[in-house]
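Q: Structure for this?
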Amino acid sequence: MILGALEAGGTKMVCAIGDETGRIIDQTSIPTTIPEETMPPIIEYFKDKDIKALGVASFGPIDPDPSSETYGYITSTPKPGWNNYNILGELKKAYDIPMGFDTDVNGSLLGEVTWGSSKGLSDAVYITIGTGVGGGVLSGGNLVHGMLHPELGHMLMVPRRGDHFAGRCPFHKNCLEGMASGPAIGERWGRPAKELADKKEVWELEADYIAQALMNIILTLSPKRIILGGGVMHQEILFPMIRNRVKEYLNGYIQAALLEDIDNYIVPASLHDDQGIMGCIKLALNALEISR
Ligand code: ADP
Ligand code: ZN
């Protein structure tokens, strides 16, 4: 059975087809400009591919509530052309098949707990640290939506002494995204994050902000594992630094066996940056199941 996957990102749209085992059969990428330019080639891609369902994981904020009038919309994004854009509606106009719709990070989380090293976990958090920062939450086996969906990337940070970077989030300045996204690192240090690999102080500061966020996540959501993905997390040196800072911040308050084995508690994404698109395949499978 062929299933369609669309990972809708702020810079590119990844379109793929795969099967019910999560195997990706074909994949292409389309730049995200304005909907009028970006949507037609996406719709064209799935033509003649005989997909039985489509899973869409999108940048946001989005409306993932099927009972809402604006279900399937990208809502309050500042990205020109995409504000209050009915992305799912546009796809449904072209294809009368079951469709699943969720946030990009819930998609990645779903990929990891379905086909990755966190397979079978019922309570997990996925955070991406890339151009933006976002997080998805699985609790008791369900992806958390609540009022809208969690926005873990925008939790407020305590600025570190000596860090004079004000933060670049247009809404909050010094939230996690404002302080720790790839572009925030680049702006703070005057060079792209990728080129700063040998600067230990860059990653110590970065690990501190990420650890502040993880402390809050552990205290509020009590996940059984935290998975970290996104471009910035390709700096592997961050993992031991983050784990140490999290232990320091928690200061022995949470006593749990899972947390004692912190190397297996705070882990990298395991699907070679395919977790998002594989998650879309699972969203498609779930939509198909609901429709039956
Ligand atoms: P996006 O968030 O746009 O989907 P990515 O997750 O790849 O894409 O994140 C891109 C960001 O990650 C860029 O801001 C870049 O600076 C940063 N980045 C990419 N690769 C690395 C790397 N090896 N080390 C540090 N930062 C990186
Ligand atoms: Zn913010």
